[in-house]
Amino acid sequence: MATINELPSGTYRVRYVEHGKRKSKTFRFKYEAEAWIAAHEASSLPPIAKRGGSNIRLDEWAATQMRIRAGHIERTSMTTYLRVLNNTILPRFGNYYLSELNYTEIALWFAEIRDAYSSAWLKQTKSLFSSLMIEAHAEGLIERNPLLRVKIPRVQRTKQIDLFSVTEIRDLANAVPEHLSGTIWVMGLLGLRVGECLALAPSDIDLKRGVLKVAAGMRQEEGRGLVRAQTKTEASERDLVLDPVSASKLQEHFDAGWWLEDRLFRGVRGGQLSPGHYRERFFRPAALQIGRPDASPHTLRHTAVSLWIRDGANPIEVARRAGHTDPGYILKTYGHLYKEESARFAEKFGSTVTAELDALN
C-alpha cells in the first residue's frame, strides 16, 4: 500500500514497496502523487482481459481505467476524477464485483446522498461511474451499464452559500504567509477567482487611478504545464475600481516588496503559484487554523459578492464586477441575499414615507 507525505519543501513523497524493497518518489503536486499511485497499483493487478466481471472488483477496474486515462487527460481533470472516486464512489461500491453492481442499489444510493453533495458533484459522480461501466461493457465484463437509467435526484438546498465574515477575512489574511496576505483581500473584497488572482502582474494595478485590471488566469494546459492564459470569456476581462481597504492592502504589498516584475503574488521561493498548490499548501492550513476547514478560495469570492449586494450593488453591477456574462446567474445564485436587502429597503422606504406624512400633520 502506497502512502503520501507532504515534505517541508511543499512537495509530496510517495512511499511504496516493489519486489519486497521499500522505494519512494517525489512529486511537485499532490494530485500527481495520487495519479501515480493509481497507475502503480493498477499495474500490479492480474490482466483484466483474462478475468470475468464476477472476479473483478470495482476498485480494481477503476484503478486500471485511471491508469489508461492518466496519459491523455489534463491533470486537473485527473484530480477531480480521483476525488470523486476516493471520496464518493469507492467507499460505497469499491468492494463490489462488477457483475454485482445493479440499477436499484445505485439509484437508491444516489437518493441517499442527495443532500450531502452539490448538484454538480452528483453529476460528476454519475458521469465518472457510468464511464467506468461503459468501458466494462465494451470489454464484455458486464451485460449492461447499470447506471443507464439512473437519474440524478434534484438537490434540495437546505443551506445558503457559505460565507466569511469580515473578521474571518482579516484572520485568514493573518494566517497565510505574510507575502500572500494580499491574495485573501483581493479575493475577499474584489471577488477574483483564485486563478485570476494568481495571474495578476504588478502592471495590472494602478493605485493612482485606483483600478485593478483582470486580464488573465493561471491554469494547467496539456503539454504546456502551468500557463498564464487569457480569461475564458470577454466578461471575465474587466477593470475593477478599488475600495479603500483593498487599495490599502495592495499598497502595503508593494511597499513590502513582496512582488516580482512579472507576478504580483509569488511562491515562497519566488516561483509562479498554481491554483492547486496555493489551495493545498497555503489556503487550507490557514482556513483550518481559523476554524473554517470547510472553506475554499471560492468562499472568498462568494463573500465579496455578498458584501457588494449588502452595500446596494444591483445584479448588473455584481455580474460586471464578478466577470459573469448573465446577470440572471447572479439572481439565481444570490437571490436569497437580494430578498434580505428587499426587506431592509421596504422597511427604510416605509419609514421615509411615514416621516413625510407625519410632517404634513
Description:
This protein is mainly alpha-helical and 361 residues long. The strands form three sheets. A three-stranded antiparallel sheet has the order 1-2-3. The termini are far apart. It is 51% helix and 11% strand. The mean pLDDT is 85. It contains 13 helices and eight strands. Helix 7 runs antiparallel to helix 9. It has two domains: 45-158, Tyrosine recombinase, N-terminal domain (DNA polymerase, domain 1), CATH 1.10.150.130; 166-329, hpI Integrase, Chain A.
Considering the chains and any ligands shown, give keywords for the structure.
361 residues; mainly alpha; DNA polymerase, domain 1; hpI Integrase, Chain A; three-stranded antiparallel sheet; 13 helices; globular
CATH superfamily of the largest domain: Intergrase catalytic core
Average pLDDT score: 85
CATH class of the largest domain: Mainly Alpha
What general outline do the C-alpha atoms trace? globular
What's the architecture of the largest domain in CATH terms?
A: Orthogonal Bundle
Please bin the fraction of helical residues: 40-55%
Number of strands: 8
How would you classify the quaternary structure? single chain
CATH topology of the largest domain: hpI Integrase, Chain A
What's the structural domain tally?
2
Assign the structural class, choosing from mainly alpha, mainly beta, alpha/beta, alpha+beta, or little secondary structure: mainly alpha
Give a short account of the largest sheet: 3 strands, antiparallel
Question: Unreliable segments (pLDDT under 50, ≥5 consecutive)?
Answer: none
Distance between the termini: 84 Å
What is the ordering of alpha helices and beta strands? EEEHHHHHHHHEEEEEHHHHH
Tell me the strand order in the biggest sheet: 1-2-3
Strand residues, percent: 5-15%
